[in-house]
Design brief:
By secondary structure, the chain is of the alpha/beta class. It has six helices and six strands; from the N terminus they run βαβαβαβαβαβα. A six-stranded parallel β-sheet has the order 3-2-1-4-5-6, with helices on both faces.
């Protein structure tokens, strides 16, 4: 079992692809991740980063910021168990860019996961919720980042999919995940 977190608009940022060195976590993110860590649940970032292929920043810069996020989280006794990212442009038609499931399949292979027992938290219905639906994971849409437009302007792009829960933010989503896990094991 694991929780996959979108990066931009879910753990921080503003919902659009911003430069990794400008990316900041929301103030509630470390507490949310620590709750999952304390329960022994693996926590992964999975994120589309097409700006790498478009030359806005490098994979090295993305990983430098990820390593700095780990240092920041350590100050709160929290950590990510890994990061999966797609560096390709949309027109590359790769298998890893959400809503495709290549990143999830790689994590499944790397960590021997049953994706149907995992949770995916994101702010983008047409990317995060559709990817979660494809692998049978629980789908939590957060109201940070793109959520409002995911439920209004862009709802047609994922009309066949329903979120299992719509949360105010990541911390709210994690509380729901913990309660859902308790109910599932009873």
């Amino acid at each position: 079992m694991a929780v996959f977190l979108d990066r931009d608009g879910t753990i921080g940022g503003h919902g659009g692809g911003e430069h990794p060195l400008e990316f900041c976590m929301y103030e509630f993110t470390p507490a949310a991740i620590r709750l999952l860590n304390d329960l022994g649940i693996k926590v992964f970032i999975f994120t589309n980063q097409s700006r790498i292929a478009r030359g806005y920043f490098t994979e090295e810069e993305l990983m430098e910021r990820y390593n700095n996020l780990q240092i920041e989280l350590k100050e709160h006794a929290a950590k990510f168990d890994g990061i999966y990212y797609c560096p390709h442009k949309i027109e590359d038609f790769c298998e890893c860019q959400k809503p495709n499931i290549g990143m999830l399949l790689k994590a499944q292979q790397d960590h021997h996961l049953d994706l149907a027992k995992c949770y995916i938290v994101g702010d983008n219905g047409s990317a995060d919720m559709v990817a979660a639906h494809k692998v049978g994971a629980k789908k939590i849409l957060v109201r940070t980042g793109w959520e409002v437009s995911s439920l209004t302007t862009y709802r047609d792009s994922w009309r066949e999919v329903e979120a299992d829960f719509v949360a105010t933010n990541l911390l709210h989503a994690v509380h729901w995940i913990i309660e859902d896990m308790r109910q599932t094991t009873e």
